[in-house]
Amino acid sequence: MARENGSRDLRKWIDQVDEVGSLQRIGEEVDWDEEMGAITYVSHKKEGAPALLFENIKDYPEGYRVLFNIFSSSTERLAVTMNEDPGLDERQLIQKARSKLTAREEPTQVDPADAPIFENTDTGEDVDLWQFPVPKMWPGDGGRFIGTADLTITRNPDTGELNMGTYRQMIHNENQTGLFTSPGKDLRLHLQKQWAKGEPLEVVAVYGVQPELFLASQLTFGEDVSELEIAGGVRGSPIEMVEGEITDLPIPANAEIAVEGKMYPGETKTEGPFGEFTGYYGRPEDDAEVNTVEAIHYRDDPILTCALMADYPGCDINLTYSVGRSARIWNDLESLGLPGVESVYTHPAGASGMAMTVVSIDQQYAGHAKQAATLAAQCPGGAYFSKFIVVVDDDVNPADTNQVIWALATRWDAERHTDLLTDTWSTPLDPSRNPADERPYGSQLIIDATKEHKYMDEFPPRTAIREEMYEEVVDRWDELGFDYEPPSLPIFYGETGSHGDSDEATSDESGDGDDFSMTM
């Protein structure tokens, strides 16, 4: 048996989230056939619901476990993964993610004798994917999907660069899975290049994954960016890797379950459908490329990681996509030189942060809002499957849906403040685009919900209380009998424009109209 090293693996992460009350262990017998998925879906209709560790699965031996919804809508579990305070809220996590996703920690190599993933290895006729308690999640799914909370590692045949992504994988038989990839994704590009040479593409797929690797593998980065280095930056320490035994690819040394395989030219089998992150079944049953597994590596008492794809808040990738995408768009806007960006938020209910982007800006010149919107719509971090881009002023918190709707109701004129981009980058999984062969192309609605720049001086001031009055109320909060924390306010009186009593409104005590106090 391999020796445990001192780095964090999935089991230590489970202990950490258990300590903060964000894990539920289920010891009662549960069926892999729809029941695990149903329990996860129902329990995760509550925002912030705990991750579920199923410890007793019908038809499978004691010790074989399944972890569902590593992240879901839990800010606590995402913060633990990033080695941050579990008490951070979404906007604070986005701020942290901005630096975490640009940090880099090169992976480190581990001696195979010290790699937990090599505690057990099956090859040849011993390969059997059915040995793991793989769920069928939804009644209409085409099979049992072993690859949901997974990562897949491939190498660019031309450059040698590694790529790490998350792709759904359905079991066909003991040693084959269907591996579905959307057009434009890195694995598909690698596959096309390798097959053009008449050669199989080597694949490492990890089915019991460390959360920081799962997080990094979900997000889209440039070809020259290493997701392994990003995962290390997210965690704050290098990811431990070990060389594969069958392929020329690395394997996370602390993974629970990993396979090495090859995708042979032209080999496809019928795959799907699958209940997807949109809250609908994915593309209809169709042919998909096949990964033929030549070796399975797994730890003693392995933990299979699964991600339920569903409507918000039950979908496991809702929050991670939202936080990661928000951070990437914000960083993209700043790298493009756009001034005045105060905050970015992609709402997790919008198909896991994909469909709706809200940008808050301090308007500084004519056309600033439209510039921000179009850049957010088409920057690398925000272009894929984006549908609504809303720009609001800096007195509106993009993460507060009520404030955004208020800005839409009072600052947006549909006739004059709306634009449309067509033939944008979309996904075959978008059910709104028909017929299905048109789904790779989408459209984006640009909404300017800011105060109209040319009439800024005439725009009515919004209502607000004085900051000193707010502080007085907060000081008396318990005395007044409230049993919840006092909310932060986006702005105070004196920061909202002219009120007629200009001397008082612009005093040092109330603010000067520029240095607002929106809580980050």
TrEMBL record:
<feature type="compositionally biased region" description="Acidic residues">
    <location>
        <begin position="503"/>
        <end position="520"/>
    </location>
</feature>
<dbReference type="GO" id="GO:0005737">
    <property type="term" value="C:cytoplasm"/>
</dbReference>
<comment type="similarity">
    <text>Belongs to the UbiD family.</text>
</comment>
<feature type="domain" description="3-octaprenyl-4-hydroxybenzoate carboxy-lyase-like N-terminal">
    <location>
        <begin position="14"/>
        <end position="87"/>
    </location>
</feature>
<dbReference type="GO" id="GO:0016831">
    <property type="term" value="F:carboxy-lyase activity"/>
</dbReference>
<feature type="domain" description="3-octaprenyl-4-hydroxybenzoate carboxy-lyase-like Rift-related">
    <location>
        <begin position="110"/>
        <end position="308"/>
    </location>
</feature>
<dbReference type="Pfam" id="PF01977">
    <property type="entry name" value="UbiD"/>
</dbReference>
<dbReference type="InterPro" id="IPR049381">
    <property type="entry name" value="UbiD-like_C"/>
</dbReference>
<dbReference type="InterPro" id="IPR049383">
    <property type="entry name" value="UbiD-like_N"/>
</dbReference>
<dbReference type="InterPro" id="IPR048304">
    <property type="entry name" value="UbiD_Rift_dom"/>
</dbReference>
<protein>
    <submittedName>
        <fullName>UbiD family decarboxylase</fullName>
    </submittedName>
</protein>
<dbReference type="Pfam" id="PF20695">
    <property type="entry name" value="UbiD_N"/>
</dbReference>
<dbReference type="Pfam" id="PF20696">
    <property type="entry name" value="UbiD_C"/>
</dbReference>
<dbReference type="GO" id="GO:0033494">
    <property type="term" value="P:ferulate metabolic process"/>
</dbReference>
<dbReference type="InterPro" id="IPR002830">
    <property type="entry name" value="UbiD"/>
</dbReference>
<feature type="region of interest" description="Disordered">
    <location>
        <begin position="100"/>
        <end position="120"/>
    </location>
</feature>
<feature type="domain" description="3-octaprenyl-4-hydroxybenzoate carboxy-lyase-like C-terminal">
    <location>
        <begin position="323"/>
        <end position="449"/>
    </location>
</feature>
<feature type="region of interest" description="Disordered">
    <location>
        <begin position="491"/>
        <end position="520"/>
    </location>
</feature>
<dbReference type="GO" id="GO:0046281">
    <property type="term" value="P:cinnamic acid catabolic process"/>
</dbReference>
